[in-house]
Design brief:
- With 492 residues, the chain is an alpha/beta fold.
- It is built from 24 helices and 9 strands.
- It has 3 domains: 148 residues, Rossmann fold (3-Layer(aba) Sandwich), CATH 3.40.50.10140; 226 residues; 92 residues, no CATH class.
- The strands form 3 sheets. The protein has a 5-stranded parallel beta sheet with strand order 2-1-3-4-7, sandwiched between helices. A two-stranded antiparallel ribbon has the order 5-6. Strands 8-9 form a two-stranded antiparallel sheet.
- Helix 3 runs parallel beside helix 5 and helix 20 crosses helix 24.
Amino acid sequence: MSNQPPEALPGHAFISYVREDKERVDRLQDILESAGIRVWRDTDNLWPGQDWKIEVRNAITSGSLAFIACFSEHTQAREISYQNEELILAVDQARLRSPGKAWLIPVRFADCTQPEYDLGAGRTLGSLQRVDLFDNSWEVGAARLVAAVLKILGTSPTVNQEPATGTVNGATRLKATLLASDRQIELEELVADTNRSVREQLQDENLFPVESPRVANTIDGIRFLVDQAQAYSSVVGPIIQLLIPGCTWGRVDHQVIWTRTMREIANADKRSTGKTALLNLARLPALISMYAAGLAASHRGNFGALRAVASDPIHRGATGEKPLIDLVHPWLVFENNEITANVLALQASGKEVLDSDIDKLLKGQAGKRHTPVSDYLHDYLRDYFVDLIVDDAEYTDAFDQFEVLIGLVATDAQIQGKALGKRLHGPWFGAFTWRDRYSEPLIEQRFSDHIKTQGQDWQPLRDGMFGGSIQRASDAAELFISLAGLTRRQQW
């Protein structure tokens, strides 16, 4: 986890529990504090002679960034406890807060029933998304909980990051060494250490199994896959924190570093047997990393860096070597698993997704998004770019332009692969297909026009994309425009 000390982050997380769960809460506290989250507990924060009720009320109502309500077989068995009074205070606070803002987080230490408290606006304690920390769910659940609390803080989440490469310090160190010619060894060691730490976590079969009886087309099965996806996105956070500034401000001689980083993430998990949904989901870290790095590079006009992260990396799998762009095709990551993609998109947009919402999606009683993976990546990555791209409209425009450009790259890879006898999946069509459907000319046509008018001076070509070939870029644009038009006609 991040090595930020507890005092580095404002406020605290209040943990409410019963005495019988002390050992479990000790473990939970260690995890939260390792992520830089200050914890308030009665055992640690009350001094002799202090008024318990006043201090607890102050801790809950003042400075509490999250209220973590822990439940277990012990809470279920007890009718009287101090926790009940804490929960009443928390419920009062939750009623005062905006329904769309997370604050009260239920945690279960056992397969137990949560008490029902009315939170107002049609909400109950049982309707809030919970985190399970029991049996084999501790690793994924803890990552999910840390991510939730850090999201409340507006801080990008990370998991199990070594002290030398914590995300805040890592990003700061990268910026300090990026343009200093006498610190390039330090820069490469920083990136290599971060890569190594992230790869070790991605290869942890306890954290990321490829076999599980929970994989099923049920509410619980979807919850499990969503949790796995969130854990993947959390683990890869330190890489994203380095790739974004690296691909924004890095020099030409740094591009090999970004290619190596993407290659190592893409090739971290070499398992080829297991549940298809879990095997496919293992591609998510590479997809998120490529989008983060590519968006940063594209927004800056650093197309050499975009080539380095999207075109140059190679994935070595059971069927041989293929370009990374083929591995991270979004519909391969979520193949036959669009409900999970839809839930992730809804959560990333800030919506609380209830079991009833998932049930409606499974039964076809709720509309599904046309581009859930694109929508999820757009909203999930927004916080990472909040300092680099302040305006939301500018961010969305940059995201759409990147998706068109990466679509051209995937189309070119498909054309080049076909010439070599390889069958690649080709481009995908993100949210620009519906966001930009009324523009004249359409966004992909504008790219094609740039290629025609600027020719060999088109900056992506000058930076080595499409092999520097105007013919390859033109062929890719022509095919991509045709396929994008077909996609629009099929959807609208």
